[in-house]
Amino acid sequence: MNKIFILIISVILFSCSSVRKNNLFLEKKIAAPELRKDVDFTYSKLKRFHPNLYWYISKENLDYKFDSLKATITEPLTPNQFYFKLSPVIASISEGHLRLRSLPKQYTKAEQKIFKTKKPLFALMEYKILGDRMFVKENKQSLGNIKPGTEILKINNENTAYLIDKYKKLYSSDGKNQTFQKYFMNLAFFNFYTLEHGFLDSAVLKTKFDNAITDVLIRRKKKSDKEISSEKDQPKITPAQKIQDYDASSNTYNRSLKFLKRDSSIAYIKVKTFSATLAKKFYKESFEKIAYARSGYLILDIRDNLGGSLSEINTLYSYLTDQKFTLIKTPEMTSKTSGLHQNYFRGQSVFSSIFTAAGYPFFLAGNYFLSSKKQDKYYFREFTSRPTKPKSNAFRGRIYVLVNGASFSASSIISAKLKHEKRAVIVGEETGGANDGTVSGVNNTVTLPNSRLTLPIGLFLIRPNIEFENMGRGVIPDVAVDPDFGSLNPSEDKMLNWVLDDISFRNSVLGKTK
Asked: Do 56 and 176 touch, CB atoms closer than 8 A?
């Protein structure tokens, strides 16, 4: 028992020491020559591992950007000051998956325990960023008596317009696409802000409503005993909820199926992210229900779906076609050994690494033998690049796919495939992910030696098995419908309504039946 107690105390002390060292390093200024070495290191790793580095930017242009960056680094900078200089150059490559990561402030277990007793400061309201302006979309808890529609002009004396402009340089969509940025800024703004300022207990917001400008102090509220207790005592998730990938903390489902008409003629599947969690079972049960209902129409809603598992979209596609298909082309790499550089141990604790180390030789061998060379190019035999048979109860009716600028990565791949095969009508807004593929799959996360910033580099060029458009754009919908993004509270779902009107027209005028 004494040995166990000593071990626990040692782990706690080591953890506190590690947090302190990390936070001290955040304040340390790194010499300019060392930062310039990090710039060179970054570019060398990109050229070594990124399989299509000059897809959207020429080598000459990217060379110039890296050289220009080095010329501007003439004085010492903290790691995150350096982050804000290097990240825009990475973003200029125009690969949505490729984003530099900064060094966040760390907190001790005692501090984390205190945070768990408090509500998030900025998450107490819902916001909408439109261009370079931020508005309060909803304020259910009447925080500071701020009304919906109020504009946030400043946060702690920093102009929101300045912050938005600063943050939008840190990421990009795929290629020339312009629809992704506005969605991602709404998702990521307070992540960037917290990264700069840490977890705050209060903030002063300069607000504007009906031309009246007011300073409002908001504070992080303590959770009630009932709220803390309910978080600890989460209700048991049922088998049906598991299949729909239920999230108890938000009381939401990742996947859902419903019928939009009493006669079950219109099936509607919503997928928020391709998480792969029990996906095969969900689609099996869902399409059994659709087949039993004899639905004539299927609406697949993948708006705001940032992507995820290739395995899941391969399974989903097998229920949407009656033809044998190959979802993606064989992924390309920069070398036969690229796959060996995947993040095998990253994110694991010291203890879990000990157990998984036994499988590492098999991981290396498997990746090496799944790699091949053909005509001076290197490929990886990913299973979704092999022919797949359709399911026996695959849907045979008319399919509509709803997309928007936040349909990214895997969402764009399945949309591009369905559109190319003329198997579905794509409705909505140009997807944020490219029509012709992306660089992702698995990453090699490199750590810059001096600043310790990290950069996950996608190792595989993943492209849908289609004829490429070579336009550098997202999936262009067959029917463009304005998503009404500029409205704080849209009164209707224009995309879904267009589909329902089209179905009604087909049934009444064209005489289509289920």
From this structure: yes
- In sequence order, which residues have a C-beta less than 8 Å from that of residue 170 and are 6 or more positions away? 84, 87, 88, 91, 99, 100, 192
Cα–Cα distance, 278 to 375 (Å, whole number): 39
Half-sphere exposure of 443 (CA within 13 A, CB side): 14
| 185: three-class secondary structure by DSSP | helix
For the stretch 107-127, pLDDT in tens is 888 888 887 888 888 988 999
Helix axis angle for 2-27 and 79-91, nearest 10°, is: 70
- 239 or 169: which carries more pLDDT confidence? 169
Q: How far is CA 128 from CA 135, 154, 217, 334, 489, in A?
A: 5, 15, 20, 40, 10
CA atoms within 13 A on the CB side of 265: 11
Please report the domains of the chain, with CATH numbers, ordered by start residue.
118-219 (2.30.42.10), 234-343+366-508 (3.90.226.10)
Instruction: Work out the number of other CB atoms within 10 angstroms of the CB of residue 124.
Output: 18
* Contact criterion met (CB below 8 Å) for 274 and 287: no
Query: How do 438-447 and 454-462 pair as beta strands?
Result: antiparallel
pLDDT at 514 (0 to 100): 44
Query: Cα separation of 237 and 234, whole Å?
Result: 8
In angstroms, rounded to a whole number, what is the distance separating the alpha carbons of residues 228 and 427?
43
State the alpha helices, DSSP H only, in 402-485: 410-420
